[in-house]
Amino acid sequence: MSAYSTAYQALTAGRALRPHEAAKVLADLRRETGEELADAVEKQLDGKFRRSPTDTDGSFRKKRLHYGASMRVINAFRALAKDPRPTIPNPRTRSTS
Asked: Are 37 and 30 in contact (CB under 8 A)?
């Protein structure tokens, strides 16, 4: 049963959930939603950064960099969804000078 179905049944059953039951349902829902969202974004990116016949080496390097950054964000999102006590990862710092 999906986490959404479990949460819906718990809300409509008329019985109050115990705190640990509610926490488990919410954690499962967060994990499932995060995985579905990350999978959908990854599916949208599939093929977008492939090398085309008109790409120069420089433009293909840019595509690879953008793909790597996109995948780091998706993987960080997956990690946040799985972790019971999520923390935001530190961003990479780049010199702007």
From this structure: no
